[in-house]
Design a protein that fits this description.
This protein has 4 domains: about 100 residues; about 30 residues; about 260 residues, Rossmann fold (3-Layer(aba) Sandwich); about 60 residues. It is about 45% helix and about 10% strand. The strands form 3 sheets. A 9-stranded mixed beta sheet has the order 5-4-6-7-3-8-9-10-11, sandwiched between helices. Strands 1-2 form a two-stranded antiparallel sheet. Helix 1 runs parallel beside helix 4 and helix 19 crosses helix 21. It is elongated, with a radius of gyration of 29 Å.
Length: about 500
Amino acid sequence: MSRRPTVITGGIEAKERAVLNSALCAAGDPLTPFVADIIASPEYWLSDPRCIWLAGRIGSLLRSGFPVSPEVILPEDKTGIVAELLREPPLPLAVAEIEAQTVREAATARLVARELDGVSERILEKPSSAPAVAYAAADALRAAFDRAAGKKGLSVRSPDEILAMPTDPSANLLGARLLTKGGRLVIAGAGGVGKSRIGLQLVAAIIAGRDFLGLPTYGRGTRWLVLQAENDNDRLKSDLGALREWLGSDWPFVQARLRIHTLEHELDTMLALDDETTATAVRRLIETDSFDGLLWDSLYNYASGDLNKDQDMRAVLTRLQQIGCHRNPKRANVVLHHATTGKTGLAKASGIDRASFGRNSKVLHSWARGQINVAPLNSDDNELLAVVCGKASNGREFPPFAARLDPASMVYSVAQDVDVRDAMEAAQSGKAGSRPQLTNDEVAELAAGKTKAELARVIEGRTECSQATAYRLIDRAEEAGVIRLHRSSKTYQDTRVDP
């Protein structure tokens, strides 16, 4: 069996033919953006008349809803190009997209040369026309370069046009619009707290359509790319092995839609986006597949300046957004970022200062549409975390909760037995772990025949917690359905006991 080519040698005509061969043999698969644009406007992008004819015929069939295949077009081909193309195996569409970019660049070069041809002669012939000739040439060149880059200019609509636009029912990806298509979510936490593992679990949950730490996801079947420069392949094997066990039968579905940047040679570890060579490599990696979302782990890997400075933070976020949404403004971007450490960081993770949790939070918070803060609740390990919503510009914030890493499965889940507010208060006071919490069942065992105030006092005495925490434990047990307040007596019943 012949191998499918991954690179086309020869002149621009060979690349044009390779792009058309892929479009001709796509077998119903959607064409990639640059390939589709060439098919839609062959006279603009192609130089070979036979290629122009074939692209026009493919485009006509696609617009009419008819299937495209060599067998359909071959009988009407008077140029012989289809028969010639059938002698070569087609490129995968992802590779053809890269060749299409070269075709577009060549077409742009031809247009530039045509626009510049005779400019100096026209100016010398009539010097007074120099400004007008120069401006006209500049506008034509700008339009050519913008079209080659896929730019369509700024969009503008009237209020009624916006109101009449259809709503995408699949736009939401996480929670109450915490992350949407084209959205920007930041997960902030101190170094070593587990952001990489949390981010990977989030992406896997979205692809599988599973809840992420109690938050519903809505992106089943989406395709994601994880960009990272920290975790070697052994660490990735450990994390992915845990996810495979957690996903069970969903694993084949997820792994087919997830790609992870690995650290295998020098360029893999140097990802500063202000370097044009690196930016091009990252952009081309993103363009190898129709990814719906990107996970950037962690932000400082993509910057070369000081992220404590507004100018440098703004520069890397702007560059990340440009590359992340290149040719697909609906691509979601999730960014992992370092945050304040210690008790100060824990204090900022929630409450009125939750927006200032991330490093250089002013610029970061303005850029993000959603933010999740994670902070350790124990001083000795990072297995128990506070999870707090730092921002939800497109929807509602979720209430804070605790999450626990299972050391056996290495997967995070909601810690239902932990009152996160009380745990954060205890951790900040240096008394973390000194006041035991009660499970819902333990609250139920104390509840029978007591009023809420009486039950709260019993819980306070048993755990040495505050009155507010005792009431939260009671409310949690009520929500779990293990206790019920009798309407007439105003005392609790243990619903686990048959009446």
